[in-house]
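User: For documentation purposes, I need each entry recorded in a consistent format: the amino acid sequence on its own, followed directly by the corresponding structure tokens. There are two entries in this batch. Please keep commentary to a minimum and don't merge the entries.

Assistant: Recorded as requested. Entry 1:
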Amino acid sequence: MGEEEAISKKEQCELLAKYFEDLAQPKDNVNFNNEKLLNCKKRCKIIKEIAKASTDTEVTITKEDIRKAINQLNTKKAADEYDLASEHLKHSGESLHEILQETFNQILLEEKVPSTFKTGTVSPILKKGKAFYEVENYRGITVTSVIGKVFEYIILDKSNLMKSGQSPLQFGFTQGLSPNMAALILSEACSEITGKQTIFVTTLDSQKAFDVVSHVILMDRLYHYGLNLNLWNIIEELYSGVTSTVKWKGETSTSFEIHQGVRQGGVLSTHLYKAYINELGSHIGNNYVGCPTCADDIVLLSLNREEMQEMLNIVDNYSKDHRFNIHPQKSNVIIKTGNKRKDPEDSDAFKMGNNDLNCTDRTTHLGLTRSTKDETRINVDDRISLARRTLYSLIKTGVHGSNGLNPKTSYRIYQAYVLPRLLYGLETLHVNSKEMSLLSSFHLDTLRKLQSLPKRTACASVYLLLGALPLIAEIHKRQLSLLFGVLNSDNETIRSLAMRQYMSGRSTSFFTKTAEILEMYNLPFFLELCEKKYSKIEWKKRTKSAINGHWTNKTTPRM
């Protein structure tokens, strides 16, 4: 921190702990709205009094709740500070379920959460591309009590947190929705721009978003969302007296207190953060698709400069009310025009409070580069470069042709580690024939090398020997999966967008292209999919069978 240095592992551990402790203390800022904070404190005191006299039905926990929560635990994760892992609970018997049921119901009755549920071990993770010697470049991931996680899963289920009242443009950590849907909305909005039209795209970076959540303001919001008062008291108690330690290279720091933020790694954390930020999306999102959001990744869209500035003013006021900062250097505005050869004329800076937001030629949103020109080509080049680096990193494991692993084993590893990086997010972009050719060349060349085949080997042979698909088929699978997710979600905003875009018939629209793909593989028509006749598993099996059958017939030599 600052000019302070740490040489030994213990010193480094304590320095990191000092940094995370400082991050967990509320900071005052002349720009923050202190009146909002004081009002929330007053309201929370009143809410506590209301809770004492409340006639809300007391929440009870059943054995089925315990089983369901334990099944939700992720496996192969680090053990907690008591050396308990999720596998211990998953392989436990009925007797443990009875003990947990009795314990959890007693917690709800007394509205007192054990201190063991409030402690955690922070593992510092270096942010991508950042210098390892600066503590500010580390993100803290907290490992909490496994039994506490079971309790939090139950509280999450009982509270119905954010299942009603959530902004329709919030796609992060929401059942039935995915970040790709937020990326798709941005792509569809940009694809509509033609001729002299202009669209302003602003990506916002919230500084330490999860770490600076005000507990008082959060609890005030939860009450207004209609949270059961018994559960309100439990969550308020869960975030009182929270402590953490830092684990670093075998060393453990002294314990420190947490007075703000929702811990990254906690079961409730992402849902509580969505509740905290929800009003912003609801306010702006009431207008068309102006604010597609994925947790703390926010993008603003507008066809009008004045409207974009007004949206930025709303964000600025909201950040001051909720005591977080928008990073002006890491937030960007790009201006896309219908005329790809002509630069936008209206490129003056926007204002975020007292800071300028300059217009640039590219920005990043959900791992995809958004740019004023050649957007898809830039992403394709980035994906190929990343896939190639990933492939090189696997060479030592035997993923290569001569004297390496069995080609089919190498192909499975390629499918698991390289292909997802090669294709990430491309289903949401308009990939033309030249860009598809670049991707296909990398894919085909890799499959040849895995089998030690000469370059002149026929494409059909390269695919058939491994049972592999051409790259275009891999993209089609991902596009049809995303289409199914959109049309089968309960989110009426994105379903309405899908129907509007399909009916418009624009050739650059994702929904027009996927309608053609459905016809290509003799799958149900677009409108039939809207009727929600198929389960996710049924649709996955059907598309896999149709795509595999189509390309097998196309590549198998005729006798």
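Entry 2:
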Amino acid sequence: MSQAARPGRRKELMRRRKRRLEKMTTTSRPLYISYAGPSLLEMPLLNKGSAFTPQERIEFNLIGLLPQNVETIEEQVTRVYSQYKQCASDLDKHIYLRSIQDNNETLFFRLLDSHLDEMLPII
């Protein structure tokens, strides 16, 4: 069995990446990102979803991996909040919020900051 196929190996690699990213983001100098394409989109701390600019999409090899239109973080918050409001139960809302956090932590925390009183009991 290869190392990549071992159970739990992927989670351990993700934990290591997250620790490295946390160390890197505490500096005041520009952040060098060695991720591109699908691997960049798999990193919740770096994934901006549809907020990647056209230039960033070229630089990080994201052409064809994201919707064509570019949204600001505020537009993303408005969109995901309207989807959140369509969830039927508190459990559905919780699952929806967790899926956002698993994919785009910046969006998750901005959404939470905008609607904290409403969402705090859900999370």
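Summary note for entry 2:
Residues 3-59 form one domain.
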